[in-house]
TrEMBL record:
Name assigned to this protein: GNAT family N-acetyltransferase
Domain N-acetyltransferase: 3-146
Residues making up the signal peptide according to the UniProt record: none
Pfam families associated with the record: Acetyltransf_1
Length: 146
């Protein structure tokens, strides 16, 4: 296993769009096509393909917002590649990339509270559920202190 990140560009965006999650996960994460379109209008959104050797297996994006908060906006592993340990390794690569390139002291992510698989993954690398006052029935917030 050789997990690494490559910036999404004109050479790899189409293979990224072809990635998908399991049907039961559809309500938890927007499509990669939507995310790529969003990046054209979202200031400071950085997108990466998650690769195992030369094969794209996932997608991630982070946003440094106007308040200076670092938000892990997207993270997904293709349904054919889930359960192989790639998620944790890829998430650690994303965290290291952010730590190397930014001075932020924390990373935030919002997820659906019923997405127990994702909550477990984020907890395994140090993210913790955090009360912000913005929670709703379809969104909770997790924070990783760097």
């Amino acid at each position: 296993m050789s997990i690494h990140l490559k910036e999404i560009n004109k050479e790899n965006w189409e293979e990224c769009v072809n990635l998908d999650v399991h049907e039961k996960q559809n309500g938890f994460v927007p499509s990669n096509a939507y995310s790529i379109a969003q990046s054209k209008f979202e200031k400071n959104m950085h997108m990466f393909g998650i690769y195992n050797d030369n094969s794209i297996i996932g997608f991630t994006a982070y946003i440094l917002d106007d308040d200076g908060d670092m938000n892990l906006a997207r993270f997904m592993i293709d349904k054919k590649e889930q359960g192989k340990g790639y998620g944790k390794s890829a998430l650690q690569k994303v965290i290291e990339l952010i730590k190397t390139n930014f001075d932020n002291k924390e990373i935030w992510i919002s997820i659906h509270p019923k997405n127990s698989t994702a909550i477990h993954l984020y907890n395994s690398v140090g993210f913790n559920v955090t009360e912000t006052g913005l929670e709703s029935e379809d969104e909770i917030f997790l924070k990783l202190d760097l």
